[in-house]
Amino acid sequence: MSAKLTTTSPEATDAAGERLGATLGPGDVVALTGELGAGKTVFVQGLVRALGVTTGATSPTFVLVNEYRGRMPVHHVDAYRTTSLAEVLELGLEEMMDGEGVTVVEWAERLEPLVPTRAVGDEPREITIDDRRR
User: 19 in helix, strand or coil?
Assistant: First the structure.
């Protein structure tokens, strides 16, 4: 199933993330792509709020992974500064994606071989959600 929508403000992008977040469950992976400033982190802020996270999401660019606690664990991965797939594997990305939480990957195109086919993806601003869970 695919859905497309266009957002024209950070608030609308946040709301789109929240709508998707409300549908996610354990083991789901969300793959986000787009240029710098496209709204990936804003989208994640709405998504994690829908998952019961009470602290705001921030970009994990320098730490690579933020973990939030809500209804289930949420792993927020930012691959922007990664230099190799091995680096991300050492962080335990595969275990996160197969775990009991939701994994959200910004700059997912940099980790393409590791992103499972079941991943839900988006394109910022003109957002395409390709739901492969079914």
Answer: helix
Q: What are 31's strand-pairing partners?
A: 105, 121
Nearest CA among 117, 18, 116 for reference residue 70:
18
Closest Cα partner for 116 from 26, 23, 30, 21? 30
- The DSSP call for residue 95 is H
Amino acid 125: pLDDT: 56
- Contact between 51 and 21 under an 8 Å Cβ cutoff? The reply is yes
**Banded pLDDT at 61 (limits 50, 70, 90):** confident
Backbone angles phi, psi at 130, to 5 degrees: -105, 100
Rg for the chain (alpha carbons), in Å?
A: 13
Question: What's the pTM value of the predicted model, to 2 decimals?
Answer: 0.84
On the 0-12 / 13-18 / 19+ scale of CB atoms within 10 A, 108 is buried
In this prediction, residue 124 carries a pLDDT of 43
Number of alpha helices (DSSP H) and beta strands (DSSP E) in the chain = 4, 7
List the alpha helices (DSSP H) in the chain: 10-21, 40-50, 85-90, 93-97
